[in-house]
Design goal:
Helix content: over 70%
Radius of gyration: 19 Å
Strand order of the largest sheet: 1-2
Number of strands: 2
Length: 152
C-alpha cells in the first residue's frame, strides 16, 4: 500500500484509534500521544498486509506502554518521582535471570513479554505451532519464577 493510501486510511479511522486509546488511558493528551506514536510506526513500516488492524495493534501497544509508564511514576507531593530503588533492583534481577535462559527461550520471552508479539505472530516467526510456542513460553516463565523464588 502506498504512503498516500495509508495516510487516507489513517485519517479516516483516526477517531476509532483515538477511542481505543481513550478507553485504555482515560486521558485525552496521553491518548493523542499513543495514536501519534502508532501512526508514526505505521507510516515508517514498509510492508503491512492490513493497515487498519496493524494500526489498532500499534495504538493498543502504545497506550499500554504509556499506561505502564504511568504506573512506574509515584506522586510525592507536587513532584513526581520514579518508584523505589528496590523496584528498579527487582527489574534488573528479572532481566539478569532472563538473560541466563537458553537463547531460544530468552528470545521468545523478550519478543512476547517486552515487544508484545502474540503467540500467533511468534508461531509464524519461529515456524513452530502455536501450542509449542505457548509451551516454551510457559517453560521459560516457570524457570524464571523458580529462580526468583530461590533468590529471595
Amino acid at each position: 500500500m502506498k504512503s498516500a493510501e495509508k495516510r487516507r486510511l489513517l485519517e479516516a479511522h483516526y477517531l476509532d484509534f483515538f477511542g481505543l486509546a481513550m478507553a485504555i488511558l482515560r486521558d485525552a493528551d496521553d491518548a493523542r500521544d499513543a495514536v501519534q506514536d502508532a501512526i508514526v510506526r505505521v507510516l515508517t513500516t514498509r510492508k503491512i498486509d492490513d493497515v487498519k488492524s496493524y494500526t489498532f495493534r500499534c495504538v493498543h501497544n502504545a497506550a499500554i506502554d504509556i499506561y505502564r509508564h504511568r504506573l512506574r511514576l509515584v506522586p510525592l507531593g507536587n513532584n513526581i518521582s520514579y518508584q523505589t530503588d528496590e523496584h528498579e533492583e527487582r527489574l534488573r534481577e528479572v532481566a539478569r535471570l532472563r538473560d541466563e535462559l537458553p537463547e531460544a527461550l530468552k528470545a521468545l520471552v523478550e519478543l512476547h513479554d517486552e515487544e508484545d508479539y502474540t503467540l500467533e505472530e511468534l508461531s509464524v516467526m519461529t515456524n513452530m505451532p502455536v501450542m509449542t510456542v505457548r509451551r516454551r513460553l510457559d517453560e521459560a516463565h516457570a524457570i524464571l519464577k523458580k529462580r526468583m523464588e530461590e533468590e529471595i
